[in-house]
Amino acid sequence: MSDDNKFSLGDILWEYADYTPPKAGKAKRPAAPPLAPKGATGQPGITSPQPQQPAQPAQAPAAQPAQGQRPATQPKPQAAPPQPPQAPQQPKPGPAQKPTPPQTPKPDPSKQAAPQQQKPAPVQQPQPKGASVGTADPSGPQPAGQQPPQQPKPERPASQPTPSAEPLPANQGPAGQAQPKGKPVGAADPSGPQPAGQPQTQAQPAQGPQQPGAPQPKAEPVGAADPSGPQPAGQPQTQAQPAQPQTGVPQDNGPDLIAFTPDPNAKKPGPAQAAGQPGQTAQQPLKGFGPKAQAGQLGKAFEGFHPFKDRKAKAETAPPPDAPPAQLSLEYGVGLKPLKNKTIGAAVLAVVLLVLAFLDTGILSFLTDLVPEDILLYASLGGFVVCCALAWDVLKDGLVQLTNFTPGSSTLALFAAAFTLADGVTMVLTPLRESAVPFFAPCALVLLFQLIGQYCERASKFQACRTASSVARPYVVTQDPDVLAGKTGFRKWLGLPKGFGSQIRTTSQADERFQKLTPVLMTACVCLALLTTVAHHQPKLVLWSLSALFTASATLGASLTLSFPLQILGSKLATLGVALAGWPGIAAAKGCRAALLTDNDLYPPGTVTLANSKPLSNLPMDRVVAYTASAIRASGSGLSYLFDKLLRSEGAKYLPIEKILLQDNGLIAQTQGQQILVGNSDFMSKQGIALPTGIKYKNTVFCAVDRELIGMFGVRYALHTTIVPSLQSLLGHRIAPVLVTRDFNINPKRMRFSDRLNKDSLTYPDLQRRVTLSGPNQAHGQTIVAVLCREGMAPFTLALIAAKRVRRAAGLSSFFVRLSACVGVILTATLSSAGALGAMSAWHMALFLLLWFVPVLLLSLWTEQY
Prior knowledge:
This protein is α+β, with helices and mostly antiparallel strands. α4 (325-333) runs antiparallel to α10, α10 (440-468) packs parallel to α23 (842-862) and α12 runs parallel beside α22 (793-834). Helix content is 37%, strand content 9%. It is built from 23 helices and 13 strands.
């Protein structure tokens, strides 16, 4: 075996990444010492594994190196070794000369220090082939009663100076000396000869004999820290056991709640995970090799070369300040009724202007002669001025947007009204163009729909804030992370709606998109108006062209993309106590495919009633109710409301529950040294408790104390008529219902669903996952989707479906609004360049705007059809 482990010093040196081969002509590698004869004992060399003997208390004098030994001046590499001085280089013998053993320099008698008492070295475990110094023994702990062999610490010759106290890096050896990556089995001991009089014995391997070609344990760098820490002398080293996954569900308040069902997804850490545990040192890759190192060297050549300038990221806009819903309801309620009256007045004037524009077309010739052209023009101008006065809020809003450099749809309506009014005044004062009614009717429609948008937005926000403030502690619906298989899910929980006011005030995404398009539309309107009139030698038509272009760009549905669907659903949402939390909450519901349903969602308080109750022991009824109600209350079951009423009616008190264990058909609780069993008939049968005969056991709750049956309670579950339609609506909108119930009588098999609902479509996790998801200590999403003020599943389902439908309607309506604005500008510019006053009349422009509003109207009405 000793002849098989032959490798030179150069093979060892190449194991290190920081080794640099010496240049030719400077330093030569010293000659390798000759090997000991095969089978020789007592001499260092490459032999079979030698045992390590404990250090002797008496210090032996240093022996001179014999023929074929490694010089004693070369120390043995240890973990974090001190830095000795560089050994002198020996000349390499020629091919005709024989290698001579290296000579140890003679010590100076005047500088030689007195011998010191040598302390015994700490206990070292025998290292297998490839193991490095300072690493844990991979063979595991030694058997009981067997002490590991010890190795004496080699003495430092008096000629060697005291090494420096400063340690070196773990992967770097002393200067001029290479460190081996690991000590192979049978390698020569570099510490020199053993003390005189101490024979060397052969060590027995800890494991079975290794077969040739078997995989060897991977070596670790020298100086790697032992993860188990320093071990006392005489005790074997043990390996750290991996931590087992916990299956209990801790609760902050109440007793210790434990789900009995084991987690099937729990996996024990494998060897790859154990290698990455704390306290173990991973092997570092070689430095200076591989594609990453070559890419880094290539990147240095182009350092400082930037062909493109880095664009700074735009700072995110701070959200609006938060406010309580009650305060916001007062703010939005002020001026809501006057705004409604203004909208009605503007609508009446817009209808009158449409009739006058229709008379100007000449389609009905017998009506054209009834109204002269001059009266028609003056009447239209007067009606339009009154309409602008009623829409003063829109014009003021557009001016504020323009001064804040955030132009929107109100800014386009402001320019359209200004150029239309200027065109009408110039027609009355000076005949610059043909006698045709300006765009009073279409511009009045633009102002009317802007007023409708403002009213719908304020009314929907007022209704939502009033609904959210109707209850002191409502249910909050959020999209929570990591519900099932790492996916998000909707959950409702009792809490304060913090951030609801900030979300209500946030601008919708549809309005932001149109605000980004508004500067482009304004530039295009001005440029195209000048290009189609002045460039075509028609300067008299500039005001007419500007009025037409700005009116076409300010479409009717620009302010109704989100507010109109919310206003249509407002009455239906307020009836069931649902308040959507603005556009951020509606957008946060995107991509969620699961909804968690608890006991109170399927059976709200009042739908579970007590049919009968009967004591089955000598205990009084109040004591039986106290045992049962205390255990059910600690489990968090949906039966808590029923048994709480029963407990108050009996005049009993709750008992302190110390521990509780949940199972599929019942629960086990411990209180004051007594064991309480509460469950259905299947649970009692599994526990070996005999049940009385002649009793119907369906949905019956039994209670036993110390395995003695003490009472029973007949429970009647009445499924509400809205449960099945709500589940069907969720499945129809691709939202999977997930039952996270804790009541042992509620499961898909025991619930009485109609034939229209497939029970397999419901997700029913195991007990441990249900307890975890229905617990109070869950991480919730930061964005509120909705606020619920009523119990039951119908409000929860309505909030999820309404948010999903409003988001889709707003997105599609925004697309049609921007498309209609772009198409209107292009088509109007084309007709304006041709000077087609007859083809582009006020009546035709009004029809164009109304037809492009039809998709927005249909999408908004679609949100209510479910």
